[in-house]
Amino acid sequence: MFSNNKNGVKKMKRTDLEVCKSIFEALFQNNPIHKSDLRGLTGLGPRSVNKWTDLIEFIQSQPQLKITKKGRYQMLELEKPLLDEKISPESVEALKIMRSLLTLPPDELKKRLEESDKVSETKIVPK
Question: For the residues of 34-49, what is the DSSP string, one character each?
Fold first, then answer.
């Protein structure tokens, strides 16, 4: 593919794959990088850099694409998402509270549980 530059000289237009590769090459060499610096290293304009980074971000947020060969055809399949095994800080805090409650003597645990039933919005906090 050819296009004319501002001086009317024909130049070769890059393919989408070549543009994408140039973005990642710039990122591998300069990580992290400001978008304006990425523009300079890839030769892309502001709109193009935004378009490409938005597209890459969208693709990376999707389930991984699995491509397999069935005879002379290729089959495309989205891999099933894995369960998120990250534990939130709130969950860790709740587990700490539960563990501390379980170390209480049975009478004290019963007393705390009864107190928490009386005031539903009160947090159970070990003493």
Answer: -HHHHHHHHT--HHHH
